[in-house]
Specification:
Strand content: 5-15%
Number of helices: 11
Strand order of the largest sheet: 2-1-3-4-5-9
Structural class: alpha/beta
Radius of gyration: 19 Å
Largest sheet: 6 strands, parallel
Shape: globular
CATH topology of one domain: Rossmann fold
Number of strands: 12
């Protein structure tokens, strides 16, 4: 499938993943990208979304827009995470169907899997147990989005595909406290501690929980690869895209501490929640279809930290 000369709508094009995708398309000479920002198009407004599709006639859609945040934000505002993400994806998916677009890609999250999920997490483990309570609102919205795509394909014959990444990090990540995830939060903490000459850095939780991370440029690569090469019928309901390796939060913290040359102590606050005990995706299906991640964690962290120090 050739995308270069097609009209492509990217929702969330000004976010971390969206910017990585746009950068790749710009590098490859794509000239017909539709990149409305929030002021230009409120995806929560059904009429505005319908009008935008009717006016601009996109042929392909990457739905990346989402309300995101770390564990504290998810605990504080579960209703917002559920409502905003659910209504945005519903409006985009329905308008894509009404306009008979050729293909849509919905980007999900590994938080869709049960808290006590067998490891590594396979696609068939979806809905086999209770979700992690600290981000249940966000997870439910992502599950509904992928199920909408699945059911639209079944009922209407659409070609809507779903990719499920692990924790995404990298250039253009959120580094403000309310929206930051674990890696961006740790980078900020260590940088602030260095600048303030603090003798210690405090981190939420025990540090024993384990996470898998995927560099944002690898996410963009996966999206382009599957959009170009595979249909929804070939992929199935959804497919995991991961690095295949996980790391404890404790080891991650010490790795970032070392890269940033912070000389102080790390203190873990066990009174704060850890979230899911372990999240590692089984990405063997993606590998069997010819895709794998290219960036190891240490290299990705170095690139992210270098970008942060230049742009903070």
């Amino acid at each position: 499938m050739k995308l270069k000369d097609k009209k492509i709508l990217i929702t969330g094009g000004d976010g971390m993943v969206g910017k990585a995708l746009v950068k790749r398309f710009d590098r490859e000479g794509y000239n017909h990208l539709l990149l409305p920002n929030h002021k230009e198009l409120d995806l929560r407004n059904q009429k505005d979304v319908k009008d935008y599709f009717n006016t601009n006639k996109p042929e392909y859609v990457f739905h990346l827009a989402a309300q995101v945040g770390g564990i504290a934000a998810n605990i504080k505002s579960p209703a917002e995470f559920l409502y905003n993400n659910l209504i945005m994806e519903s409006n985009v998916i329905e308008s894509a169907r009404e306009n008979s677009i050729k293909k849509l890609l919905f980007l999900g999250s590994s938080c869709i899997y049960p808290r006590e999920c067998p490891q590594p997490m396979k696609e068939e483990h979806l809905l086999t147990g209770k979700l992690e309570p600290t981000n249940e609102g966000y997870a439910l919205a992502k599950i509904c989005g992928l199920k909408m795509c699945e059911y639209y394909n079944k009922q209407y014959g659409t070609n809507f595909i779903n990719l499920m990444p692990p924790n995404i990090y990298g250039i253009n990540d959120h580094f403000e406290s309310e929206k930051s995830h674990v890696i961006s939060s740790l980078i900020t903490k260590f940088n602030d501690a260095k600048e303030n000459k603090s003798k210690s850095v405090e981190i939420w939780g025990t540090g024993i929980s384990r996470r898998e991370f995927l560099f944002v440029e690898d996410v963009a690569d996966a999206m382009v690869y599957f959009m170009k090469n595979y249909s929804a019928k070939e992929i199935g309901p959804f497919i995991n895209i991961g690095s295949g390796e996980d790391i404890s939060i404790k080891d991650l913290a010490f790795l970032i501490k070392d890269i940033m040359k912070y000389g102080g102590e790390i203190k873990f606050d066990a009174s704060k929640p850890d979230g899911m005990p372990k999240k590692l995706l089984d990405s063997s299906k993606a590998a069997s279809l010819g895709w794998k991640a290219n960036t190891n964690l240490k290299d990705g962290l170095k690139k992210t930290i270098e970008w942060y120090l230049k742009n903070k």
